[in-house]
Amino acid sequence: MVRSACFLLAALFAGSAAAASTYSATLETPTSARFIARDISWNCDGATCQGVTDESRPLVLCESLAKRAGPVRTFVVDGRAVASADLERCNASAKAAAGASASGN
Description:
Structural class: alpha+beta
Oligomer: single chain
Strand order of the largest sheet: 2-3-4-1-5-6
Shape: globular
Order of helices and strands: HEEEEHEEH
Distance between the termini: 62 Å
Number of strands: 6
Number of helices: 3
């Protein structure tokens, strides 16, 4: 009985760890670029960027994209849009990165 329960738990954890999330974003300023930002490889074409990763930190991934590609209009994780408050926090990092670039830091 204990072995069966352990096997079942191990199978459940193994299945959930292997699932990658799909991320997509719409940028305010279109770009045709491919780059790695934090733990995700982004492929951008026009104003749309897409990527897949095992990481589950949407806000961190959004912030890294915004720092690299500029303000983000929408950010979607596995078909669900992030909350507007999180999107504002994401774009605050784009503004901070732009300010640092403008000041020469």
